[in-house]
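the two lines:
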Amino acid sequence: MEQIASHPAAGQKKALPGDFAIWIFIYAELLVFGIFFLAYAYTRAQHVELFNTYQQHLNRESGAINTLVLITSSYFVVMAVAAIRRGAAGHCTRWLILAVLSGSVFVWIKLAEFAAKHAEGITLSTNTFYMFYLSLTFFHFMHVLMGMVILSVVALKAYRGAYNAQEHTGVETGASYWHMVDLVWIILFPLVYVLH
Amino acid sequence: MDVSTRRALQVWLALVVLTLLTWAVGRAGLGGGPVIAGILLSVAVKGQMVADVFMGLRAVRSPWRWMVSGWLLMVLALIGLAFFTGET
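prediction for all of em together
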């Protein structure tokens, strides 16, 4: 596969895209989400009937639409990075705005899902399945919000001309974080909404 | 459209197709060992595509790339093990 990050000479490997500090954060976040996923899976193994029963009560369509929304927003971010590498700051800004708007669609759908569960009287203490469902999806939801803030700041800076073809570390840093949020949801959706 | 953005579009399309397949499996109520294995395999493919093409890790020096790929494979393998343990 060709890489989006850059076009190094054949066989030449390069450093991580963006600020190295964000990667320490990303690896730490992946570790935390990984532990959370395994806690879900191994708790489920002790309560298979309970998890299978209440999983059927989730809105699978919302989860699937949100997956499509996040992968599409990730694609927009890829295009933003490609644009700034060409020095097209205006295009970069527009792609980032599209990504943030996609993120807001995710947030709106997720809030509707949370509101529906709240209206049914479902809380963290309803049962073990809902404890995991609410805490896992809310934890990820907070990361989406944080990613939207980061991308908004990067978009504003791109609009003001802070980035160009030579210097665009900030765009790559925000992009890397957003892709991590996408990567985590790609596991979370089938794990919580589909697998049984 | 250059090669890298065309590749990103291909990956986006593949991610959409695999997501719709996963949703269809859920909607049909399918479950059990082979379905779990198939979905986890598709998640591994999707995750690796996101890491390699969207994150750009394909071009990155090995330890950093493999930390993400290793995390992905280990988490999915252990999830699979937990689900198969729950089945028996």
